[in-house]
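User: what does the whole thing look like in 3D?
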Amino acid sequence: MRPGSEAELADCVAGLTGPVAVRCGATRAPDAGDLPVLSAAGLSGITLYEPGALTLVAGAGTPMAEIEETLSAEGQMLAFEPMDHRHLTGRDGVPTIGGAVAVNASGPRRIQAGALRDSLLGVRFVDGQGRVIKNGGRVMKNVTGYDLVKLMAGSHGTLGVLSEVAIKVLPAPDARAVLLFNGLTDAEAVEALCAAMGSPFDVTGAAHLPAGVDGDPVTMIRIEGFEGSVALRAKALAAHLVRFGTPEVERDMGRTAAGWAFVRDLKGFTQADAAVWKISVRPSDGPKVGAALRAAQPDVGIVYDWSGGLVWAEWPDTGDLRVHLAGIPGHATLVRAGRGATGAVPRFAPEPAPVARLSEGLRAKFDPRGLFNPGLMTAHV
Amino acid sequence: MQMPEPSAGILARKAEIVAGLRDRLPADAVISDPAETRAYECDALTAYKCPPLAVVLPASTEEVAAVLAYCHAERVPVVPRGSGTSLAGGALPTADSVILGVARLNDVIETDYPNRIIRVQSGRTNLSVTGAVEADGFFYAPDPSSQLACAIAGNIAMNSGGAHCLKYGVTTNNLLGVTMVTMEGEVIELGGAHLDAPGYDLLGLICGSEGQLGVVTEATLRIIHKPQGARPILMGFDSNEVAGACVSDIIRAGVLPVAIEFMDRPCIRACEAFAKAGYPDVEALLIVEVEGAEAEIAEQLSKITEIARRHNPVELRESRSETESALIWKGRKAAFGAMGQINDYMCLDGTIPVTELPRVLGRIGELSKEYGLDVANVFHAGDGNMHPLILFDANADGQLETCERLGAEILKLCVEVGGCLTGEHGVGVEKRDLMMTQYSADDLEAQLAVKDVFDPRWLLNAAKVFPLDATANRRSAA
Ligand SMILES: Cc1cc2nc3c(=O)[nH]c(=O)nc-3n(C[C@H](O)[C@H](O)[C@H](O)COP(=O)(O)OP(=O)(O)OC[C@H]3O[C@@H](n4cnc5c(N)ncnc54)[C@H](O)[C@@H]3O)c2cc1C
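Assistant: Here's the predicted 3D structure for the full assembly of 859 residues, as structure tokens:
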């Protein structure tokens, strides 16, 4: 099913008699399995772009590449630096804005500019009864009624099928500097990242690769903006972090962009059969996560982003990684199941009973017939 | 403005309910004497008043949970309250409701600089959150003008903004976690020191829900390091159109100032008379502030000045000292006080796409003539959040009503051009009956469904946000 308009989408949902896999570009979601696919990829195209108001409105199926090119022609960008999941999922589809919204895809700049949900101004979607619902709008400040925009971001297509989204965009930086520290331990690195984030120098990326491109540990701290300001802040930040060594400073726009894409898309993860987990913790707890996982599984691959608060684990094991993280507040999501996985490990962290009741209540209201991606966000598969 | 009839049954049981509350709280935490409950009869929207049945001032999450469980079991309506500075009537009681004030919940629970968070009890005032960390160079970014008084609880409920949110975002972008008690008395934790929700973004849903989904007792907030410096520049233009175009060009050029404030002539004149800030007598005035180290400030200001010059400003005044900076801000900060001196005023809060500024200001001018009431405009131009101030005389017969009708027209205009009814103050009772201009019945139904999930009996602040007739069945079924 691939409706070409919102009205067709609404008719299509109203006429459904059983569950469907809701997809857009299908580069991020798990396999649809036996379910018929309801694709919003046909709802494509930018319907409004006002550079002077920093707003863009597009159909859910609009390719990310189209959006990024349009913005870049005006010297603007998406603030949340969305990950391209294709390296992880091995899919060759076309990533779309609707898919990005559905998974709240937020990359390294999330630590400074917020997640996708923070840039999302408005949504239109079709609920499980085939009703077209809008929430939010296209303006930057809006507290009129409940914020269903946030609810829809990251709801993985389980509450409704997105038809259109409105997004706040940002000016793209003129210049960039990346401070690179070599050879730090995880603990030292995360301490350096936290010190950088706590400085007044407006850091826009803070990541640590225990195994960088050449296999050695590298800690990356990014500053962006106008040329003069970037040069100034890079120098001041290096001085601020002198106790961690003297960093190399990379200034080339192309090379720095490639370096951050390497982090963002987890290009260092090359074990195609391994599971990939996304672990969200208090940044300073990041190294504890790394240590606990290494103790349990020496072949684990680790990437720290968001100042240490996002730990990616390439996990050559089909078991539930969460059992190794008891006592560390936060949560873990299974982003890619490893080869041989039975589906017994829940993708999303099981919620405490009172929260689970609210989540189930919302699902029952928005999708009373249980049509959309059934089981995806529930703890029990 | 209508409020639902209070339940005669609840009113008749007042003594019993007060006793029930006293059983669960320390003696001084329950107020039932009408002489004392009157202090809670309204918030900052003082046109509407109604003393509550009783007031409770719990001092812990457990006490909040005990009160809510009891009220839920007894089907007593509850209205949460922070500091009562809502401009939308969000904390306005009904006669059959218990006001649950969080003013006694004001501790700092944790500050953690490496992770840039502070965890506070929700009754703590906005400014005192920054107060707790500023000696160490940090601050909490959302800064409503009411920050000396308003509580984090109210900020979360209203998703409040401030002058600096163009760069730093509003409350929801700076909120990492809450402890919340549901109407049934269940304590739940959402978020925390980590980023992003494990499942649905319930935290995002709670923020801005106007006290209708639960009572927030604690919050984890993002704190950030203060910038090295900040400096404003003042620009005067001879038309609103040109000033609006200048705002758009600044944003397009890739400069993202921390604040872009806009004042029109009626507002400039009133502020100047009141604050003597030395403002030029022009049609439109912009105050643009940038942050950073000295050289960064200079770099940004030179770009901004260059853009402004292309629009032939009547006046261009870059601050050269702390004193001059303070003077530039002095008039703007006194805007509300200045208006209060002249007259009674009603402050609107609609948001529009920035590109619609000139058209909307023009139309507001026409409406002002039509209704015979002056309107002064002062607002956050960078994000399109307007604050038209309608001047009226509360003692003159019928002027409040005329003012409300004009206000409704202006808000409808905001929606018409692609904006919304409220950018930061919330719907409360004030804009409740305009909701259908922005939302369809299905749009509203989706929101009501959320309330059904969190508060199935519709006991928590139930007469707010939605038109009364849209919620009548739900409220009476409860
Ligand atoms: C002079 C002045 C200037 C202002 N400037 C701004 C501004 O610049 N920006 C801006 O955004 N606002 C502004 N406001 C509006 C107001 O200050 C904000 O809405 C503020 O967040 C309200 O906080 P409060 O603690 O006073 O909340 P209250 O007025 O007590 O309550 C507001 C809402 O929050 C709910 N609530 C209170 N406590 C809780 C709780 N614990 N759990 C759940 N819900 C709760 C209430 O039920 C109510 O709906 C201004 C107000 C005034 C009077």
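In plain terms: Chain A touches chain B through 87 residues (CB under 8 Å). The domain at 6-171 of chain A is CATH 3.30.465.10 (Uridine Diphospho-n-acetylenolpyruvylglucosamine Reductase; domain 3).
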